[in-house]
Amino acid sequence: MLLALIRRVGQMLFVMFGISVLVFLIFFATPGADPAARIAGRNASPETLQAVRLDFGLDKPLPVQYAKMMTKLFITRDLTSFVNRGWKVIPAVMDVVPVTLSLVIGAAVLWMAGGIAIGLIAAATRGSLLDRSLMMLGLIGVSMPVFWLGEVMNLLTQSRLHGTWLFSWVPPLGYKPLSTDPAGWFLTLVIPWITLATLYMGLYGRVLRANLVEAGQEDYIRTARAKGLSETRIMIRHALRTSLVTIVTLFGLDFGALVGGAALLTEVVFGLQGIGKLTYDALKNLDLPIIMATVMYASFFVVTANALVDMLYVVLDPRVRTRGRSN
Amino acid sequence: MIGNGANGAPLLEAVGVSKDFTVGGRFSPGGRRKVHAVDNVSLEVRPGETLGLVGESGCGKSTLGRCLVRLYSITAGELRFQGRDIGHLSRRQMRPLRCEMQMVFQDPYASLNPRRRVGDLIAEPLRVHGARGAGEIKARVDELIGLVGLLPDHLQRFPHEFSGGQRQRIGIARALALEPRLIVADEPVSALDVSIQAQIVNLFLDLRERLNLTYIFIAHDLSVIRQISTRTAVMYLGSIVETGATETVYRAPAHPYTQALISAVPVPDPDRAVGRKRIVLTGDVPSPMNPPNGCRFNPRCRYATDLCRTERPALRPLDDGRQVACHYPLSGGVAPAASA
Amino acid sequence: MLKVRNLKVSFRTEQGVVRAVDDVSFDVGEGEILGVVGESGSGKTVSLLSVIGLIIDPNAVIEGSIVYKNRELIGLPQRELRHVRGNEIAMIFQDPMTAMTPVYTIGWQIAEQVMTHNRMSKSAARQRAVDLLAEVGFANPAAAVDRYPHELSGGMRQRAVIAMALSCNPSLLIADEPTTALDVTVQAQILDLIQKLRRDHGSAVVLITHDMGVVAEVADRVLVMYAGRIVEHGSKRELFKAPWHPYTWGLLDSIPPMEGARPRRLKSIGGNPPSLLALPPGCAFAPRCRHKFHRCSQRPGLAGTDGHQAACFLPPSERETARAARTPVAAGAS
Q: What's the pTM value of the predicted model, to 2 decimals?
């Protein structure tokens, strides 16, 4: 098993390397555009452009440029933005990561708990009104665009119903760090958590229900029933346990993407300075160094999340462990 | 009386045919390994006879069947059809030969395209291969549907409207469309109910007489093989362990595996069932990725000796015309193969 | 021990009502092996599934009486039925490859059943699992207990399933085609095992199969089913020596013999299996029966002696000649 893990980590590094090369080429090797101009931002003076060229080795061959860029990103970490003079990119990225993490992890807890509950209840009461209503709600949750839902939530909680006891506790938009103000941190994030989780709760509930219903047709469920086990035990210990693999896969993809910056819309709507917001602003300003950093960071997260999920499979599904070993 | 076949030159000949599959990639646990699904098989089929290929799961009989009609390419050995080498032909070169050898498959539910009408399914081979006009094709399809015992208005229906036995008849009609000389039937009755099995077995027998067909009949059901085959070949872990006239093989099996196999078949006669001494094999069939040394059957054989554990017996002829791969054949009138 | 009377199971479907089991009655005595023979659609599986309440289709309607040790099982709330299921009446199914949950070891799954019905510590349950695996023929039960189902071959998996079924010492084991998916040599091993366990545990066994050979080897009494009805039942000896129903004749004749002369053609049963949506008003087998006559438009009840009955109007005196006169049906008939 250790060998499998090492192999997986190796694959991960390989993929990361590939992504970094691809990102680099997109930014530095697209014909017809001058990387220096892009790095230096709009309206840069010719001297700035010259400085950039020297700094990034743009007159040297591509592999050298790549090496220089990677050095600036990872080793010396002194890549600076030119749009916002002197703003060190890597620390900037590291600063906003906790915000995104807080948002996504909290939402993840909510949506997993909610999604699994919805899926279980719907599958257990299959065909009933409760099942159908839950699936309908789930569909509604999936269909509501997160930015729209977010704005509606803001409308209700920040202005319209802010005076009522229901939402008076909701603080103004913005993030409060956990270390300085735990209560504030929690309160600012409650509504964003619910908003972000709604979409995924619906999705996961529906997917899990489908998986559970399918698992319910399997022979081993029939055996479990013939053993005299209670329906609850069968549902949770046998059906859910074997359906976990799908849910975990989905979770890995979604979590990785969200932490990597896909929570952008939620962050913008709720004024949270997360990695998504940072990327968004950088794109607006065409601030290449920041974009490079956030892209690398995002891909790192997605790849890591997927690798972790793969390694988790081995724990979840024993059939994966001995594949290739003869009986 | 079932035709005694065996006239003239063999229709299909396999010499030392092997088929390997590679399992696992370079980076998976254990690395790349070869499975010898078919291991050095030699046999021949003469016009008019039926060769029964029997064995349990994993013995390679289905793979061998597909290799014989070149649905798979062979890894080693020679394959000759009507004297002509077909083992090394390209797909394009094989195409005209496909008319001569056809296959009937096991699963009547999976082997017919559910979106096509029955008439189209049967006519398709004719359209693909022959330069026949629409009228000729229609006439032939009508003829075929009658041959297999279905009715003309069945032609307009879809496969899902038929029972398993009827679908198998459709599959047979399709196989017969191009007037092949050889039909390889891969477990054609295993998925059917017992009473329907008997109907389809009868159909195979009738067609053989009427159309002078040659069959290679693959099955794991020994009673069906006995009914339909003139000669029988028993396979174990990719190789043939015994081959000979069906009567002889069943009455007095020479290979211990054949003996165990035959004695394991439950007999629908309580008197015989109770008194019978059954040979129950211990253990399971070993994995084809890890075959035992020496004779493949030795771990489960009651008669195994040291020779069996070290030296692999080749297929050797016995007095009564059979061939057995065993150092100590149980019958057949010949002393055990010369041991070193 | 088990008395089934007038069991009827029907399913409401879009195309109409399917009478999967139509007025079936039979008994299972202590320690006996009852063979239930039939082809697809005969109702053999559905009848036995309803004994332990495994029919959970909301469109199913179950009527009749199933009395187990003086207790009526039909209508029993699921909570109470669960105490019977797995504990007093156990059931095993056809395909061993998918019968056990893939993510738990076989020891865990056996222990689960034991602990559901008995108060036992985990270690005691695990020990019981080891003992059971030894009994069913595992060479190294202490190691086998920690293996996953996919690590075992088909035959070993079926043994594990049997061990699991016997874990609570049931008085009745229902085996639904337990050897159909196995190789014939493995089948022989499993049938031997079932007989041995019957001897050692004294449990009765209902063996559902389509294979008359298996029945001849193992059963004490036989039940033949067709289209949801029992068409013949009796002791094994009587049924094989002198079967009364034309369907039984057809089943026996459909099996190619392993010894003796090979028939030129098998005396098969013509026609196709019946559609349960559109059964004829009289005898269900009549459309395929070569011996039908005017009385067959009425549904025949089971008639005969105490130990041997058949649902057929053919007079006993004519049976022998009728059977002997059977010739193979032309293969063209369908």
A: 0.84
